[in-house]
Amino acid sequence: xxxxxxxxxxxxxxxxxxxxxxxxxxxxxxxxxxxxxxxxxxxxxxxxxxxxxxxxxxxxxxxxxxxxxxxxxxxxxxxxxxxxxxxxxxxxxxxxxxxxxxxxxxxxxxxxxxxxxxxxxxxxxxxxxxxxxxxxxxxxxxxxxxxxxxxxxxxxxxxxxxxxxxx
Length: 167
Hints:
This protein is an alpha/beta fold. About 30% of the residues lie in helices and about 20% in strands.
């Protein structure tokens, strides 16, 4: 008796978002500690922090720039920090670490070749060790749905139908 791997011979393309995750450190840069009493931005003190800060620690890292304090921070403050980070970081985004990961996945998905998925049946793998934001699944589904015959979620042996093109 020959054992046949039906999943391997099904013609399904499996996409694993975890494999699309860019390697590298993710860092949250929070302006809160640079504010007077974590509430008020004093320009002179803020510029002093910028001039004395060791920016090299962000070399080749992905940085999410935010302020977690309930304070009014002028836009130019984020811009000043972004200029400094840009010289070292691989990427700087405004927001939290989830926003950063979303941006990184959006870049990776936009680099996919649409021709590779034209009229294919695709499974978007559901289980991963690393945390993949839901936004990445949504973005990948939006990218694929105009191209593919069908999209399923899960594992090739046990999937949930997500999309099927009407003939």
